[in-house]
From TrEMBL:
Its cofactor is FAD. Belongs to the class-I pyridine nucleotide-disulfide oxidoreductase family. It comes from Streptomyces violaceoruber. Keywords: FAD, Flavoprotein, NAD, Nucleotide-binding. Pfam families: Pyr_redox_2 (PF07992), Pyr_redox_dim (PF02852). Residues 371-477 form the Pyridine nucleotide-disulphide oxidoreductase dimerisation domain. The keyword rRNA processing does not apply. GO terms for biological process: 2-oxoglutarate metabolic process. FAD binds at residues 64, 127, 323. This is Pyridine nucleotide-disulfide oxidoreductase. NAD(+) binds at residues 194-201, 283. Disulfide bonds join 55-60. GO terms for molecular function: dihydrolipoyl dehydrogenase (NADH) activity; flavin adenine dinucleotide binding. Binds 1 FAD per subunit.
Length: 486
């Protein structure tokens, strides 16, 4: 590992230029560096917090560690002969201790060692663009180090949580996803604002770990970007678990008079809710406000618009990969973009052919057509591609085919009284699938079959020959195809 070594307050210029400089060592920056190194390009990576990024320490990993026992218990409670054995509460302290293990106790030695292993030089500090192909790193001790890039700078700085600017919000010290994933105890009462993925996952986790959760939704339901039945099934299960869900309400003010005391949440219908903590799960903003974008003619604080090779429009050297380009705010999709962008940087550096045609080696085409996502709630929700509403908005001639998952033999064996639903959105002109959504216990691992069908544009006539094993939940594929064929 290389560190910035200049005297405090001084600026030093790095030795020879690197081929590639990556700003941000989250999952995406790590993978851009890996691909660049694999192509033989010298690579520097700049990280201001922990190598591994939001995903490893305050997002995917800790949230799933909190959710796993909650969902496993809900599943077990639906198995005859097992349910009585899992009636009691979870051991919250043990769950939190396991979460701490999964985050390596918020230490990044393992991930730094991995980057060392791929041969990238790691610079600790905040990276800022100070001109074309130039990044200045300010180390924690204030020293500055200037890096130059021969071929590419890749911005992989991710996002931060957005907290609405409401009266009293700063004094109330609300939770964002960071506190919700790293808290060392379950609050007695937790208000969650926002019914997107973070809101429903964290409501599920903390309700299961012993908090009394109230979910405040300004719209009509949960998970508004997905098929409507997904949010309805999750809302039913959250309600049965004891959470309160209030739709059509907005928070107007938050008050916490005593720093150790309760928080009062004022609502636009004149009512209020009292709680011990309030979590704002109200979306994300790009971490580009302090990135020196103005030095290269771009707007500070903006999402970085890129082409399909993840190159920022109007430049031939600047790439923006992962959350920061706003294409698909998911770890696996950002890592896919990193593989594409890394290959494109290497091809352009070597003046080799660049294939940015749809589904080409240097085009992140799946971002438009086949983004998979699993929401790890009870029940799980898994989707890929377009919803019916999205396909209709795009002007496609489509038909939605639905099936009650509870009627599949494998689902009945999985859980007593299994509740769930599946939908495939069929492109009637090409007879391929544009999107698939499953909502039900244990369906997360089913998703990749749908991703292959959608990304592969597998004709329905051929899917008919992909025979699901009996008696698994995946037999829903057969039922969907039979329903389509009438
Ligand atoms: C609660 C929660 C749960 C989630 N769960 C999932 C999930 O289950 N599955 C999934 O696919 N996605 C999930 N996501 C989304 C996922 O976390 C992001 O898509 C992913 O982290 C994006 O990776 P990234 O590398 O683009 O950005 P990040 O992970 O945000 O990493 C960016 C890195 O850049 C660094 N950085 C920022 N600015 C600078 C700078 N100027 N100089 C140097 N370094 C800088 C940051 O410190 C950080 O380490 C979740 C998100 C949240 C909030
Ligand atoms: N399992 C997963 O894959 C997973 C888990 C968590 C997060 N993520 C990703 O992280 C990203 C961020 O998730 P998120 O849930 O923070 O964002 P989101 O955009 O999905 O949801 C935010 C919700 O908050 C609502 N909202 C915004 N401002 C509000 C306000 N002032 N008052 C009330 N409600 C308000 C929005 O209408 C929206 O429904 C998403 O893109 C998501 O895909 C993925």
């Amino acid at each position: 590992m290389t560190d910035s070594t200049a005297d405090a307050g001084k600026t030093t210029t790095g030795g020879s230029p690197y081929d590639v400089v990556v700003i941000g060592a989250g999952p995406v920056g790590e993978n851009v560096a890996d691909r660049a190194r694999a192509a033989g390009l010298t690579t520097a990576v700049v990280e201001s917090e922990l190598v591994g990024g939001e995903c490893s320490y305050w997002a995917c990993m800790p949230s799933k560690a909190l959710l796993r026992p909650v969902v496993a218990r809900a599943d077990a409670r639906r198995v005859p002969g097992l349910s009585a054995a899992v009636r009691g509460p979870l051991d919250t302290a043990a769950v939190l201790a396991h979460r701490d293990e999964e985050t390596s106790h918020w230490k990044d030695d393992g991930q730094v060692a991995w980057l060392d292993g791929v041969g990238a030089d790691v610079f600790r500090g905040t990276g800022r663009l100070t001109g074309p192909r130039e990044v200045t790193v300010t180390a924690p001790d204030g020293t500055e180090h200037r890096l130059t890039a021969r071929h590419a700078v890749a911005v992989c700085t991710g996002t931060r949580a957005v907290v609405p600017d409401l009266p009293g919000v700063a004094e109330a010290r609300p939770w964002t996803s960071r506190e919700a994933t790293s808290a060392d105890r379950a609050p007695g009462r937790l208000v969650v604002v926002g019914g997107g993925v973070v809101g429903v996952e964290m409501a599920t986790a903390w309700q299961g770990l012993g908090s009394e959760v109230t979910l405040l939704i300004r719209g009509g339901g949960l998970l508004p970007k997905m098929e409507p039945f997904a949010g309805e099934l999750v809302a039913d299960a959250l309600g049965e678990a004891g959470a309160r869900i209030r739709t059509g309400v907005s928070v107007t003010a938050v008050r916490r008079r005593d720093p150790g005391g309760p928080v009062t949440v004022e609502l636009d219908d004149g009512d209020h809710v009292e709680a011990d903590e309030i979590l704002f799960a109200t979306g994300r903003a790009p971490r580009t406000d302090d990135l020196g974008l103005e030095t290269v003619g771009l707007e500070p604080g903006s999402w970085l618009t890129v082409d399909d090779s993840c190159r920022v429009e109007g430049t031939d050297w600047l790439y923006a990969v992962g959350d920061v380009n706003h294409r698909a705010l998911l770890t696996h999709q950002g890592k896919y973009q990193a593989r594409v962008a890394g290959a494109a940087i290497a091809a352009r550096a070597g003046q080799a052919a660049v294939d940015t045609a749809p589904w080409g080696a240097h085009a992140a085409t799946a971002d438009h057509a086949a983004v998979p996502q699993v929401v790890f709630t009870d029940p799980e929700v898994a989707s890929v591609g377009l919803t019916l509403a999205e396909a209709e908005r795009a002007g496609r001639r489509v038909r939605a085919v639905d099936y009650d998952l509870g009627s599949v033999a494998g689902a009945g064996l999985y859980a007593d009284g299994y509740r769930g639903r599946a939908r495939m959105v069929v492109d009637l002109d090409r007879e391929i699938l544009l999107g698939v959504t499953f909502a039900g216990p244990g369906i997360g691992e089913l998703l990749h079959s749908a991703t292959i069908a959608v990304a592969g544009e597998v004709p329905i006539a051929r899917l008919w020959h992909a025979v699901p094993a009996y008696p698994t939940i995946s037999e829903v594929w057969l039922r969907l195809l039979e329903t389509y064929r009438g």
